[in-house]
What we know:
Domain ABC transporter: 5-234
InterPro entries: AAA+_ATPase (IPR003593), ABC_transporter-like_ATP-bd (IPR003439), ABC_transporter-like_CS (IPR017871), ABC_transporter_ATP-binding (IPR050763), P-loop_NTPase (IPR027417)
GO molecular function, one term: ATP binding
CATH topology of the largest domain: Rossmann fold
Protein name: ABC transporter ATP-binding protein
CATH superfamily of the largest domain: P-loop containing nucleotide triphosphate hydrolases
Pfam families: ABC_tran
Oligomer: single chain
Amino acid sequence: xxxxxxxxxxxxxxxxxxxxxxxxxxxxxxxxxxxxxxxxxxxxxxxxxxxxxxxxxxxxxxxxxxxxxxxxxxxxxxxxxxxxxxxxxxxxxxxxxxxxxxxxxxxxxxxxxxxxxxxxxxxxxxxxxxxxxxxxxxxxxxxxxxxxxxxxxxxxxxxxxxxxxxxxxxxxxxxxxxxxxxxxxxxxxxxxxxxxxxxxxxxxxxxxxxxxxxxxxxxxxxxxxxxxxxxxxxxxxxxxxxxxxxxxxxxxxxxxxxxxxxxxxxxxxxxxxxxxxxxxxxxxxxxxxxxxxxxxxxxxxxxxxxxx
Length: 308
């Protein structure tokens, strides 16, 4: 793996004694999309703030493209674009001037063609001369993204980028992320909108109460932890699952009117179950199957940790 970002033993404890982040060890590969999932207050923003040099870690090191993020801050930070949760722009400045100024802050020379392309990709080109205070909330969010991309970073952090925005912007964001990744940009996304990670991520990390619970490739995670459910609507309710069906993981729902079969790809035996129902004379009216989403897996992981 060509590592572009390395996090070793990074933790954060504030002066008040609050431990916001347990020691984290994590490597991010060049060109991947990594989604960091967790509920509000889980430590996602703290970790990103440390990587971007906004917050000083209590322990550990962060290395960006071979640069120590504390000892060689400027070189490390120049490689990073950050889209924060909060709006942090001059409301009386124009869109174009704001994005150009952000590029200059990172020591980059003028590149009008790049700035125009970024604004066009974000549907902001027609608004380039508008003052930011005149824009809608969604358009202001797009300006934050344009600022983060202005200096052509190799790593882009999206911290809850679509929180509180409309569906159209969310879809536009997904398209832009795929385009950036195709151009070689490494993207780290924090979100509690699980469908964003399911749509975009190569790997998924789950964080809760400041601790990384799991890091796994999305496809492998969904195969390993994802479960499928089949709902069998019975012709006549049952009071209990017959002993002859003990070989299947079955339960009754809807006051015995529905038979629930839970399985994964390794132990699935739908044909055998249906054949056995026929042998036992158990009739059914309908079948419906559901596959676990990444959200189902995330909720299960957090609940298991809380119960431990």
